[in-house]
Amino acid sequence: MTRTIRVDQQISLKALVPSDAMTIYKITDQQRDYLGEWLPFVQFTNCVQDTREFVEIAIEDRELNKDFVYKICLEGRLIGLIGTKRTDYLNKNTELGYWLSQSHQQKGVMTRSLVSLLSHLFQECRLERVEICCASKNRKSIAVAERLGFTLEGVKRNGEWVGENTYRDLKVFSLLQSEYQTLHKHHSFKNTQ
Length: 193
Hints:
This protein has helices at about 20-30, 30-35, 50-65, 110-125, 140-145, 175-185, and strands spanning about 5, 10-15, 70-75, 75-90, 95-100, 130-135, 150-165, 165-175.
């Protein structure tokens, strides 16, 4: 898959490089309370080496054509991450994961980034199904999935371990290629906020 996806004049998705680890760690460390509310990895990110290991795995997965993690760049500055996980090429499906730094929320950045990534996944990778799993109380992530035309399939009970014998339910949303084509054809993805 391409190393850079142009979202619009200000936003682009770029493949991770080793030097991104420090920036990602700084954002994670400075926004622990905000990001940690819905992202379990935050509590396990205790030093920049933890983030370096994540970036190394992401780069290796890209080289193996396994999964793709992109940094979301606003005017060249990293403000979040977006990518695939658990991609199954035999069955032509994947799951999306994403986060955005707090100061860039509520501006349509994630929605526009997802639209561009979905276009590549359905058109270039020829995937049939894309899934978003999010905490059942994560209203922002649920709103993004609904805005993009994803269908709620159900709930994974205790689907995510959040530490200390605590689990939370995950809502499972999916979008099929045929649904994407219909939405794209009718311009439902245009001007999304």
